[in-house]
């Protein structure tokens, strides 16, 4: 299925759920289809006043190509572990244009998408699953604002990033997306 058709499908079927992330699902021809289960779940939990039972203690991160190229892998991992995060999975790898496009498909219609995809596939990255109480929120605090110029003193982006596009690290924005993003990189036997 073409990416545009995938996005069209997502729009026409679930746009009223205000999708914020596509779930990757393998379908008949083993190509990838995107369905926004995260927003569907949020919608139904809200509608029926159900509390999400999903774990809140894991997040997913990437050390982006700029931080890798600038020699910050060690310092960033040090900051992460000093902040109390346990490493569950860790991988030094490189995205292709295709896999970076899939990972960031949620941003497909934003003006920076093409540049983001080519930047994220421009060099190796470090991917990791991290564990800590309140992982999503605490990790977003640790990395700071998307734009390093606005990131708080002492945050990873303030210390190691130079621009809003090359901003050193990724951090999941919800439990559901942490799970999806972790699954994008790691099999069960790669987690400890
Ligand atoms: N990004 C960009 N220009 C922008 C906004 C975002 O290049 O104006 C890039 C940046 O690398 C960011 C990524 O797109 O980390 C994803 O954007 P998002 O809004 O999800 O920010 P994040 O969750 O990473 O803080
Ligand atoms: Mg984000």
Question: Can you characterise this structure?
Answer:
Helix 5 (97-103) crosses helix 6. Residues 1-34 have low confidence and may be disordered. The longest helix has 12 residues, at 3-14. A four-stranded antiparallel β-sheet has the order 4-5-3-6. A two-stranded antiparallel sheet has the order 1-2. The protein folds into two domains: 3-47, no CATH class; 58-190, Alpha-Beta Plaits (2-Layer Sandwich), CATH 3.30.70. It has 192 residues and is α+β, with helices and mostly antiparallel strands. The protein contains nine helices and six strands; from the N terminus they run αββαβααβααβααβα. The protein binds uridine-5'-diphosphate and magnesium ion. Uridine-5'-diphosphate (UDP) is lined by residues 107, 112, 116, 146, 164-165, 167, 170, 173. Uridine-5'-diphosphate binds next to loops.
List the SSEs and their pairings.
Blueprint: H1 3-14, E1 23-26, E2 32-35, H2 37-47, E3 58-63, H3 65-69, H4 73-82, E4 86-93, H5 97-103, H6 113-120, E5 125-131, H7 135-143, H8 156-160, E6 169-171, H9 175-185
Antiparallel strand pairs: 1-2, 3-5, 3-6, 4-5
This protein binds uridine-5'-diphosphate (UDP) and magnesium ion.
Feature tags:
single chain, 192 residues, alpha+beta, Alpha-Beta Plaits, 2 domains, 4-stranded antiparallel beta sheet, two-stranded antiparallel sheet, 6 strands, globular, disordered N terminus, binds uridine-5'-diphosphate, binds magnesium ion
**What value does the average pLDDT take?**
83
Identify the CATH architecture of the largest domain. Answer: 2-Layer Sandwich
> Please, how many helices?
9
How much β-strand is present in the residues? 15-25%
Low-confidence stretches: 1-34
Strand order of the largest sheet: 4-5-3-6
What's the SSE pattern?
HEEHEHHEHHEHHEH
Radius of gyration over all CA atoms, rounded = 17 Å
CATH class of the largest domain equals Alpha Beta
Shape: globular
Main beta sheet:
4 strands, antiparallel
| Small-molecule binders | uridine-5'-diphosphate, magnesium ion
Question: How many strand segments?
Answer: 6
